[in-house]
Amino acid sequence: MKYEVVVVGAGPAGSTAAKFLSESGVNVLLVDKSKFPRDKPCGGGLPLRVFNRFSYIKKDLIDSYSYATFAYSPSLKYHMELERNEPLIAMVLREKFDYELLKIAMESGTNFIEGKIVQNIKITENSAKIFLNDGTAIESEIVIGADGVWSTIAKKTGLRADYKNICICLFEEYNLDKKILDRFFGEKRTCHIHLSVNKTVGYGWVFPKKEHLNIGISEFRHAKDSNKSKSTIKENYETYIRILKESNIIPRNLKKENCRGAALPTYPLEKTYSDRVILCGDAAGFANPMTGEGIYHAMVSGKIAADIIKKALEKHNTSEKFFSRYQKIWKKDFGKDLKILYKTSKLWGSDNEKLIDIICLDKKLGEYGVDAIIGRIGARKCRKKMIRRLIYLKLFNRINGKNK
Q1: Are 199 and 231 in contact (CB under 8 A)?
Q2: What is the pLDDT of residues 35-77, one digit of tens each?
Q3: Which of 78, 139, 228, 394 is deepest in the core (most CB within 10 A)?
Q4: Which top CATH class is 2-57+93-163+269-345?
Q5: What ranges do the domains of the chain cover?
């Protein structure tokens, strides 16, 4: 079998790249190890800018909206509340969302092979060839690696050397009656965020949806001091469930049944391209280092990759030098924001008790922080706003004789 482009991984990054390439008349094959529809370990919180940038995605894929959030300090002594008339974040069911993106790609002309694992890749002067677990070899001009944080394409091409910058998480998604969700989370479907649960280097989340409730806990390995860790993430998750029940945030009779784990990247790879190869989404290390959300960056990187590859095929140039344009573009688009958020994410290993206390003192400061984390505004723009606000507060307090 021979194609112009083979895309490995049919998540948001791969399906987006395949869609735009196929629409341009490129002969594309999309390969995934799973059979669709399939579920994906994820909280399901989606920044609204996904739908603003990719307007072809139907709004009926949104399961619900959250208009309010509570953020709690580790001791629960302090908490910040933010509520708006417009949605803060959209909630989706990944099984439904990812399947729809795949169908859009296929309707655009993409060929699809499911339930097959890519085990190896070989790059030559004349072609790129992938090898499946059933012995099939598929030849193409270019390969897109969109096969997640454990990407075979990234490893086999030498683009990923280690897993220092990752976040691990445990979560569970419960199917609950809408009346129960209405009673606990209201029509605004209030989210809850708990910082440093049981001293974990990360946060816990409660994401209510239309008829589902997603509860999870994360641990950011790059910010973790191994000498201070005394509990496992599983123990921290169990502690979190107990805290949520004691705080009456979730029903006391909720039973832990199907807890699942996942890993997420927290920093882009040093190099996301090579001869005949481009990496997208989690495979390239594209995710919000503060939250782990990666769908937006996955889809944007897929679109950028498609644009570069179309030009490469037109010019008959699939070299590493030509594909270096890809990295320049994504760095300009979202790379600087990821860099700022990565530095900020080191706070997960700090004393977050004071952080919530400070934010609680000024509502605007808290709003700016939330907007940056959920992706409503860029991190660079948010940083400028927060610096200006802190300068204003310092001057205001000095004028009024306050020491805060």
Answers
A1: yes
A2: 999 998 889 999 999 999 999 999 899 999 999 999 898 888 8
A3: 78
A4: alpha beta
A5: 2-57+93-163+269-345, 64-91+166-264, 362-399
Give Cα separations from 332 to 170, 300, 371 (angstroms).
33, 12, 20
Nearest to 309 by CA among 24, 78, 8: 24
User: Which bin fits 346, alpha (ψ -120 to 50), beta or left (φ > 0)?
Assistant: alpha
Predicted confidence (pLDDT) at residue 398 exceeds the cutoff of 60: no
Higher pLDDT, 404 or 336: 336
Query: What CATH class is the domain 64-91+166-264?
Result: alpha beta
Q: The whole model's pTM is what? A: 0.91
Q: For 68-217, where are the alpha helices, taking DSSP H only?
A: 94-107, 152-156, 178-185
- Helix, strand or coil for residue 12? helix
Angle separating helix axes 295-315 and 12-23, nearest 10 degrees: 30
DSSP string, 183-214: HHHTTTT-EEEEESGGG-SSEEEEEE-SSEEE
Burial track 228-247 (b if 16+ CB lie within 10 A, e otherwise): eeeeebeebbbbbbebbeee
